[in-house]
Amino acid sequence: MVIEKLIILGFSEATITMLLDILDSQGNYPEINVVNNLDLKPTKEYEHPNFLINIVDSDTTIKNELITLGVIKPHLRKKVRETFKDLDDKSYVSLISKNCDISDTVDIGKGVVINTMSCIAGHTKIGDFVFINRNVSIGHHTVIGEYSTINPGVNIAGNVTIGECCQIGIGVNIIDGVKIGDNTIIGAGSLVTKDIPDNVVAYGNPCKIIRENG
């Protein structure tokens, strides 16, 4: 799909840079309007020779254009999405790097971002507004709940369930059949060998619950 114009809702330097890299990998160079509803200041790093990038106010009218979310943390993505709840869900586009290996049987929701060198095995379900960073491996029949973030270098075995609004840290390994509850954070480098409940922060090798999340 060729995108001529793209709205990015929310403003995170790392996320928008990543979105531009994904579009670049596709040879897709739309005009981009970034809606700065989180009051973050643009930097020169958003200049790009192949893109026309405009920073616009949060009251800008959005009609009949393709949309993605420009923040990486799950709770911020959900906040931005809910701020613009009146927008048509059909307008949200999933952006997937050309340099990924994704089975034809993977079910990918709306507004999903999948960065370069990620590999997703068959019969996996990726929920709406999930963010999968670079070099992530996801095994067969895994389910990832909406708004969750999977950070670089994560290895998820088969038949894993990850709840909504979770954050899986850099380099985490999750063994086969594990279930992780909603709104849970798994710290970087952890080895998850058993189920982790909702609303906690957990990390370690093996991964253990450290405290409640929020």
Describe the fold and architecture.
- With 214 residues, this protein is mostly beta strands.
- It folds into two domains: 5-91; 95-202, UDP N-Acetylglucosamine Acyltransferase, domain 1 (3 Solenoid), CATH 2.160.10.
- Strands 5-8-11-14-17-20-22-23 form an eight-stranded mixed β-sheet, with helices on one face. It has a six-stranded parallel β-sheet with strand order 6-9-12-15-18-21, with no helix packed on it. The protein has a five-stranded parallel β-sheet with strand order 7-10-13-16-19, with no helix packed on it.
- The chain is 11% helix and 29% strand.
- The protein starts with a strand and ends with a strand.
- The longest helix is centred in the first third of the chain and has 13 residues, at 13-25.
Question: Helices and strands: which structural class?
Answer: mainly beta
Care to count the β-strands? Answer: 23
Straight-line distance between termini: 40 Å
Strand residues, percent: 25-35%
CATH architecture of the largest domain: 3 Solenoid
Work out the helix count. 2
Number of domains: 2
CATH class descriptor of the largest domain: Mainly Beta
Q: What's the mean pLDDT score?
A: 91
**What pattern of helices and strands is seen along the backbone?**
EHEEEHEEEEEEEEEEEEEEEEEEE
Q: Could you give the order of strands across the largest sheet?
A: 5-8-11-14-17-20-22-23
The largest sheet is: 8 strands, mixed
Low-confidence stretches: none
Indicate the overall shape: globular
CATH superfamily of the largest domain: Hexapeptide repeat proteins
| Share of residues in helices | 10-25%
